[in-house]
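User: Sequence in, structure out. Go.
Assistant: Echoing your sequence, followed by the structure tokens.
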Amino acid sequence: MNAAAGESSVRSCDAARQPAEVLTDADRRALRAWRSHCRVRRGTLPSGVRPVRTRLIRAVGEGSLPDAGRVFVKVMGFPRWEDKIRYLFRRLPARHEADLLRYLRRHSIPCPEVLAVWTERALVLPRFSGLVTRGLCSDGRELSPADSIPLIRQLIAARVHHPDLHGDNFLGLADGRVAVLDVQSARILRFGFARRHRVAMTAKWLMHLRSPRGAAADLLEQEGVLSAAERRAAERLSEVLYRRQWCRRIERCFKESSDYAVSRGCDHVLYRRRAVGSDAGEWLSGGRELRDLWIGDRVREQWDGEPPVCVALREDRFRVGGRYRLQVLAPLSSELREALRLACARYREVRAGGAFPGTAGIHRDRLQSAAIDSDR
């Protein structure tokens, strides 16, 4: 989420509203101290900044400057090689987002004000990225789909394609307008919006809605954002994106992420939960069925809200027979094993295009509450 106005849980105004270009000396000294911290301890928030959201690749916090008042700080430290390579020939996230925010303000689209941008590379590789923005004055109301549509129309008119629109990226302001927050993944379309851009952006917005998407899609058509054919295409695409996003959350148990660590050796790969110690629980040996239990444990955690029971999975490349070893917190009963196997089968059915078991709205609420912003 954007450091700009951060989480929707912060809903208040600042008394001091001076522009960024006239920050006081006290504010500039505080910003220099924060930047020094970020250079040394990359990816961590400075002292005095309250964490709002932390992930493996970024951290967002709320702080206060002596005269400018409440601000939000977003820092990235690029801990994984895939992140370093991704930004090898691209602008670093803070610079890109700051330019987008200034562009939006020039087009009279409500968004946070940029106060400071920090970027640094070492031998071409990205080293750290930081963005400080001023907190917005919110009225605290919960936005409906009808409240968000005018802002979507503004973004399209300004040629800003935002591929990750959802409720947490919108904030109702005290003056009645709606502001956009996180624009790190947005980009300016040089030649304007084509049909595929409108469908893709609105489909992602529809995917995250807790309310019925049919009514929101009708509003998009009635307000002239989409044509009838585009509305139907956006509804179909939102279903595909929802299924894909949910499956990706399950597959994070095999990737380096905020919840999981991956270590690779010459003859093995070890997947481990970060929140559990390496000496917790016992190890089981077996075949591919242990891999299914590992997946099923993640499904039960994400889908049903059950506490995890599997700690780590080790895959040996050259071992014949018992290729997998699974670390569990406690011995698995036959009933629990069967529940994990059924959960894995449920995931595979959904991944293949099957219907979600139970009420789809429940899963959409879980997806929304988990803040699907591709943070890992």
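User: And one key feature?
Assistant: The domain at 145-249 is CATH 1.10.510 (Transferase(Phosphotransferase); domain 1).
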